[in-house]
Amino acid sequence: MSLLTIYADNQPEQSESYRDFPSIEQQLKAIGVRFERWQADCELTADADQDDILAAYHDPIERLKHQYGFKSVDIINLNADHPEKAALRQKFLAEHIHDDFEVRFFIDGCGLFFLHADDKVYSVLCEKGDLISVPAGAKHWFDMGENPGFTCIRLFTTPDGWVATFTGSDIAKSFPTLDQTVAALS
User: Fold this and answer.
1) Where are the domains of the chain?
2) CA 127 → CA 3, 90, 113, distances in Å?
3) Is 178 helix (H, G, I), strand (E, B) or coil?
4) Exposed/middle/buried for 87, CB within 10 Å: 0-12, 13-18, 19+?
5) How far apart are CA 158 and CA 175, in angstroms?
6) Helices and strands counted in the chain (H then E)
7) Residue 92 in 3-state DSSP?
8) Contacts of 85 (CB under 8 A, 6+ apart)
9) Could you read off the pLDDT of 80-98 as tens digits, one per residue?
10) Does the predicted model carry a pTM greater than 0.90?
């Protein structure tokens, strides 16, 4: 189940959490973040390839491409066996911004997005079926966990794809990781 936890950016021990979709959607909309749930147009098998996945979500992808002018769409799949998982995790864990907005739709698995807006940090546990769109210029970071396990559709308005400008802040070290968040839910 998706989870939104809102913290004061200087007091990570104090938080307010939401588990129901309407509340998560409303809280995120207030800071310009789109949060949706998508369903596949057809059943996906465990060995579905990129073309199968894109076909299963054709209609909502086309809607967003038309609405926002996305130029490219791809699939990212990271698992615990990925040889560069530790380096990728560290890169994504550093607070950064993008000139483009960042859109991720979780086909499978989960990940934890953190959005640093004004004096708050919004921690969004995204799971299968969740779409999140981080606005251009929004300070954020992402935790895929020590042993990642997710497949996402990524949409970009530029052909360059994921390009980040790092803020130099170490704020991410103050907040619970994906692994800690998932363990606390168990």
Assistant:
1) 3-185
2) 9, 21, 11
3) helix
4) exposed
5) 31
6) 5, 11
7) helix
8) 78, 144, 146, 147, 148
9) 999 999 998 988 899 999 8
10) yes
Over the stretch 102-115, which tens digit does the pLDDT of each residue have? Answer: 899 999 999 999 99
User: CA-CA distance, 63 to 68, in Å (whole number)?
Assistant: 9
Say if residue 42's pLDDT is above 80: no
Quick count: other Cβ atoms within 10 Å of Cβ 10? 11
Residue 159: predicted pLDDT: 66
Which class is domain 3-185? mainly beta
Cα separation, 141 vs 149, in Å, equals: 17
Answer for the pair 85, 148: CB distance below 8 angstroms, yes or no: yes
Distance between alpha carbon 98 and the CA centroid of its chain, in Å? 14
Average model confidence (pLDDT) across the chain = 91
Residue 70 CA to residue 103 CA, distance in Å, equals 10
